[in-house]
Amino acid sequence: MNEIKLGKKISEGKTVDVYESGDLAVKVFKPDAPKTVVFYEAFMDSKVEETGLNVPKIKEVELIDGKWAIATELIKGKTIDEALKLTNRAVMEALDGLPPVKIHCSLLAEEAIHAALWDYAEKHHIKIEGLSKPKSDIHEGEEDTEEEY
Question: What confidence tens digit (pLDDT) does each residue in 9-38 have?
């Protein structure tokens, strides 16, 4: 094993901080994290890896400055800020030529991405600026009106 040098912090939470380290993402657990929790997470991640899904592969588990860390492949995509800027209109434009009967499917993209970001933030105990709690019901926020027949 090579000694991992922590680079830029890319995420911060109550139980872990995540850093870039070259082509690795390094999840550094807080000092009070039990070793069993760290190794269990690494074990479960490796089980998911074995399914063949395209997930970051575990490279090593080690102590860094007295704290346990899991190093995985660093997979880059959109930043959280870029994902927050994704709109239903942008999705529709990107899918130019989508049959009109299928456009309704593309309209869920913005809400789905925001809901996924909210879920991620909640699970990792972090706050994402500009992100608000997603609707829990498709009709949430609509005025209650009675239809006349």
Answer: 988 888 899 999 999 999 999 999 999 999
* pTM for the model: 0.55
Which tokens hold the place of 131? 């992100």
Instruction: Look up tokens 């970001």; give the residue.
Output: 117
> Amino acid identity of 124?
H
Cα(57)–Cα(48) distance, integer angstroms: 9
Instruction: Quick: pLDDT tens for 104-118.
Output: 766 677 777 888 888
Euclidean distance between CA atoms 36 and 134, whole angstroms: 34
Q: Tens digit of pLDDT for each residue in 66-109?
A: 999 999 998 877 777 777 777 777 777 776 766 777 677 666 77
* Distance, C-alpha 95 to centroid of its chain: 24
Q: Are strands 16-21 and 9-12 parallel, antiparallel or unpaired?
A: antiparallel
Can you give the C-alpha Rg of the chain in angstroms? 20
- Return the number of other C-beta atoms located less than 10 Å from residue 108's C-beta: 13
Query: Using CA atoms, how far apart are residues 44 and 48, in angstroms rounded to an integer?
Result: 6
The structure tokens listed for 1 are 């094993």
